[in-house]
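Incident log, support desk, overnight shift.

02:14 A customer reports that sequence design results differ from what the structure should imply. Their input is reproduced verbatim below. On-call engineer (initials T.W.) acknowledged and began investigating.
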């Protein structure tokens, strides 16, 4: 879930960091770091986390009978 606190630490969604560009995060504690980096000062910010997109159904398993009332 998005608001649980048991996520793997990552600088990309830490409260101490802000994105500079797609490849770098500026951290209050460490300076310029990579988004996949982590440190012991990690503080989870749920508003910075981008959840994975749900897998869309392929539609191959659907039949004509599934759409009839």
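02:41 Re-run completed on a clean worker. Output:
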């Amino acid at each position: 879930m998005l608001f649980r606190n048991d996520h793997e630490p990552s600088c990309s969604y830490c409260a101490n960091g802000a994105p500079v560009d797609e490849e770098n995060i500026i951290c209050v504690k460490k300076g310029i770091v990579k988004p996949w980096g982590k440190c012991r000062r990690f503080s989870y910010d749920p508003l910075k986390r981008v959840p994975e997109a749900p897998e869309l159904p392929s539609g191959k398993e659907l039949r004509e009978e599934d759409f009839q009332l």
